[in-house]
Amino acid sequence: MKIVSQPEELVHFRHTLQGSVGFVPTMGALHNGHLSLIKRSIAENDHTVVSLFVNPTQFLPSEDLSTYPRRQEADLKLCKLAGVDAVFMPESGHMYSLVEPTLCAPETLGYALEGLRRPGHFDGVLRVVLKLFNLTQPTRAYFGKKDAQQLYLIQNMVRTFFLPITIVPCDIVREEDGLALSSRNAYLSPQEREDALKLSKALKHASRLVIQKEFHAKVLECTMLDTLAPLHVDYARVLRRDFTPLERVELGNTLIAIAAYVGSTRLIDNLWM
Ligand code: PAF
Predict the structure, then answer these.
(1) DSSP label at residue 172
(2) Given this structure, which CATH class describes domain 183-268?
(3) Pocket of ligand 1 contains residue 25 by CB under 6 Å
(4) Beta 21-26 vs 166-170: how paired, if at all?
């Protein structure tokens, strides 16, 4: 497995690859969720490149950039065992210069839901993902459905910037008890880990109601808030998959999304129906 830290080196390596290239961008601290994206990329492509880069431009000044879990050695081992061809792990100074154009997420979506609490977060995500795409020139890129808004904005960027890349959305991976895997789960104390189950429970509760033909978005949202109590909830919303509001669930085009604080850790989860 090749380990690359300089952008130019990655471009050079990419030119040596024949056939399809799958790309899995990550911020490291790899868990089984990442591993499922990596395995899928390996199964569907001739080569797989993974990036490990805690991207500073997507963190707000108040957020956890300095304490974000970093486990480089373990991450590299996992990638090697999985059969990854190359890992790109640049320094921040290699990725950004002091003077460069920036990229803004569309205002309507980039600053709603996740973007409302984290203004500028998606600008930073799109900026780094575009750079990573340019360096890696993948045939396919793999993203988890857990970050549904990120996934949608990246699909939108690829479509509107005419990037010749297929975005592959991958299902959320959960612990046996339902907790969606996240690098931030590492912050949870045993009691918080228990409380965090309220997110997946609220989604399950809402989906059960839909199966019983309760389609009113407001009713489902209130039910989720009840299940999530006493957590500090950022949002519990029933939306279309393009993030426009709806009054009644449209089966096949609906996303139920939650963001809530468990202690000081902000977790997100969602369900596609
Ligand atoms: O989802 C993530 O881990 C990050 O937002 C990404 C896509 C790797 C960009 O830094």
Answers:
(1) P
(2) alpha beta
(3) yes
(4) unpaired
27 CA to centre of ligand 1 in angstroms: 6
Question: Is the dihedral angle over the CA atoms 188, 192, 194, 197 positive or is it negative?
Answer: negative
pLDDT band at residue 245 under the 50/70/90 scheme: very high
Q: Whose CA is nearest to atom 9 of ligand 1?
A: 125
* Domains of the chain, residue spans: 2-170, 183-268
**3-class state of residue 197 by DSSP:** helix
Between CA 71 and CA 192 the distance in angstroms is 22
* Whether this model's pTM surpasses 0.90: yes
- Catalytic site includes residue 232: no
Of the residues 31, 34, 47, 121, only one is catalytic, namely 34
Q: Say how many C-beta atoms besides its own lie within 10 A of residue 197's C-beta.
A: 15
How does pLDDT run across 46-99, given as a tens digit for each residue?
Answer: 999 999 999 999 999 998 899 998 999 999 999 999 999 999 999 999 999 999
The CATH number of the domain covering residues in 2-170: 3.40.50.620
The amino acid occupying position 30 is L
**Statement: residue 109 has pLDDT above 90:** no
Angle between helices 217-228 and 197-211 (to 10 degrees): 150
- Å from CA of 18 to ligand 1 middle: 26
* Angle value at C-alpha 228, between 116 and 223, nearest 5 degrees: 95
pLDDT at 108 over 90: no
Whole-number Å distance between alpha carbons of 162 and 156: 10
* CA 26 – ligand 1 centroid, Å: 5
Beta-bridge mates of residue 108: none
